[in-house]
Amino acid sequence: MSITFLGHSAFHFEVSNLNIFVDPYLRAPVDPTKLPKGHVVLFSHGHFDCGVLGSAKLYDMWDCQFVAPEPLAKWMRKKYRKRIPPEAIIPLNHNQSIYIGDVKIEAVPAHHPLNRLGKTIMTVFARSSAPAKPVNGYVFDGYYHAGATIYTPAIAQALRDHDIHTACIPIGGKYATASPKDALRLAEEIKAERLVPMHWQPLLDQVFFRYQPSDLMRLAKTNRSEVKVCPLAIGETLLPQENACLDS
Asked: Is the pTM of this model over 0.70?
């Protein structure tokens, strides 16, 4: 089991001999051709910074399966009908689950209430009609990827019976994503052992975020949180048994 950060909200999870990629918006220094062969790709929603526009290239490389919220899955089946077989694109709604191999993957709620500025930026750069809602978070084998979301009690409630050892949660605090305070609160409420910050790196010159991992680390230390904060560099891998996190 391992998790590798690929920038922004993109991660590679190696679980039970499966390579699971989540929101693979892959840019330099990440070279997709040098990544392990993906077995399944999970999309939280259709914004360009989740990588859905690269689906056909990923399928050409990996012959993989895709999981997405139902409206996005329907959009993908239509857009990529000549490139990706429809059975390779699996719709999954909140509180539904599927098995890929021996791994149970469950979709959980996320909330991404994009404001007018955010919508304008996404429209300008996405050049795509891919559905942005609903947004899925995903849980599998003790890992939780929150998707693009703010904190809501409904998310913590949906995860109350899950044993989460590693939570990947946005901290950028802009464009309708969680702040460090929100991320730490959610991680604590779901009793995650480790928190990996995501959704904080500048996407383009015009798209910056308010907070950085240093803000999260400072907050966790000030609050004497029991959650270990684990900021990762692009390409860095974290194993479950590693203690290379900040002991808050």
From this structure: yes
Q: Is residue 181 part of a domain?
A: yes
Q: By percentage, how much of the chain surpasses pLDDT 70?
A: 90
The size of the chain, in residues, is: 248
3-state secondary structure 72-137: HHHHHHHHCCCCCCHHHEEECCCCCEEEECCEEEEEEECCCCCCHHHHHHHHHHHCCCCCCCCCEE
C-beta of residue 140 within 8 angstroms of C-beta of residue 106: yes
Max Cα distance, the chain (Å): 54
**DSSP character at residue 9:** T
Question: What pLDDT is recorded for position 103?
Answer: 97
User: In this structure, what are the phi and psi dihedrals at residue 101, rounded to the nearest 5 degrees?
Assistant: 65, -130
Residue 248: inside a domain, yes or no?
no
Give residue-wise pLDDT tens across range 134-162: 999 999 999 999 999 999 999 999 999 99
Residue 174 neighbours by CB distance under 10 Å: 17
Which domain range does residue 68 map to?
Answer: 2-238
80, part of any domain = yes
- How many structural domains is the chain composed of? 1
Q: Is residue 196 part of a domain?
A: yes
Q: Are 5 and 29 in contact (CB under 8 A)?
A: no
Task: Return the sign of the alpha-carbon dihedral for residues 117, 167, 132, 10.
Answer: positive
Query: CA-to-CA distance for 169 and 117, rounded, in angstroms?
Result: 22
pLDDT in tens, 61-117: 999 999 999 999 999 999 999 999 999 999 999 999 999 999 999 999 999 886 555
CATH number of residue 19's parent domain? 3.60.15.10
